[in-house]
Amino acid sequence: MTSPWSLLTTRGKAFALIGAVVVAAGIVLGYPDITRIGLVLVALPVLALVLMPRRTPKMRVLREVDPVRLTPDERGTVDVRFTNVSGRTTPIYLAEEHLDYRLGDRPRFVLPRMVHGEEKRLRYAVRSRHRGAFQLGPVVLRQRDPFGLTFLSLQLSSRSEVLVLPRLHALGGRRVRGTSRGSEGEMPQMVALHGEDDVSIRSYRDGDELRRVHWPATAHRGELMVRQEDRPARRRALLLLDSRDSAHPGTGTRASYEWAVSAIASVARHLVSEGFVVHLLTDASLRDGTADHQIDLDAVLSALARVQPEEDSRLDRLAAAAASFTAGGVLVVAAVVADDEDALRNLAAIRQPGSRAMAFVLDPVKFGGTARRSGGRDVQAPTTTLADSGWQTVVVGPHTEIPAAWVSVSEVTGVAGWSP
Questions:
Q1: Could you give the CA distance from residue 384 to residue 184 in angstroms, rounded to a whole number?
Q2: What are the transmembrane regions (predicted)?
Q3: Which of the two ends of the chain, N or C, has the fewest CB atoms closer than 10 A to its terminal CB?
Q4: pTM
Q5: Residue 7, Cα to own-chain centre: how many angstroms?
Q6: What distance in Å separates the CA atoms of residue 9 and residue 271, rounded to the nearest whole number?
């Protein structure tokens, strides 16, 4: 519980202390008038404390963000509606909306008196250069008495969120060539596909044409069976993001990690536009089970907007999860840090013969960090490990353009390098 003394401003505390001294002096010296003046000085802050409402007002706060999801450097508008849902008229408050400093300055405004059911609106702009999920709220209400003797701070717990997506880059209109089952072309329905029927004959359903009835299968199973028409294969792609906190150099908004997130997001949009079914493999998607399911582009971008480096992230764990996908034929695109040859060796092994795997290999030295050497070999050894296993790789630095890196990694065989 807040003590009354802490609610007094410097002026209020001065009034109380000086008043007490004046009262004591008046009593000691025998001057009743001085004593009365001291009592008035003490009574003013006490009266202000008594009359000050200390309960948080019952107020509903609703926020609407337009657009709902922002891109970096895009200006968004937040419309905040305050509604008095209590039976009393609220006093005048000085209000401040708390928000992440990366969204801009915190808006401050005066919230006037509001009767029951009355609504007031506030509108302010937000903009961020960085991706992320940023919190809006709570709203802090501050109140002073007319004499500035007391100061009360209350908090409306309502919170909302602004989602800023990763930076997206156009990767050109060239189709991604496939070299394996599940990567290119069409295949009959009897070939197993994730999330689709893996047989060419199925049970009869209301509305099916009788000419499609498969009589031998019907006689064998004792129920009407129909032929399932062949249809184009859904090409699958697995996008893998290295989120090891120890691998990405620096702290805070790390250039290497942001480069990797932006690259994976751009590749996701490019592949979805080409008709790929996309799976996103990160530590977060592995925990919540979404890595096993195909997700649309909006879900991919939302997940990548929230993802952050993790201390307990392990590349071998992601590689083990990725192996279950590559066994059926899938295009793999990874963004990894070349800091540990042993860690990338497990990743290199997931590529199946005849399948295609590509990797953006981030050089930690170029991003301002240091590379761990393995077995006395050069820092380029992890990249060579991937290339020797049939991966198409490109070494990137902070100044490497993502579209150019994509063109390089999607066309070359082996290792391509880019200078910072």
A1: 27
A2: 12-31, 37-53
A3: N
A4: 0.78
A5: 39
A6: 61
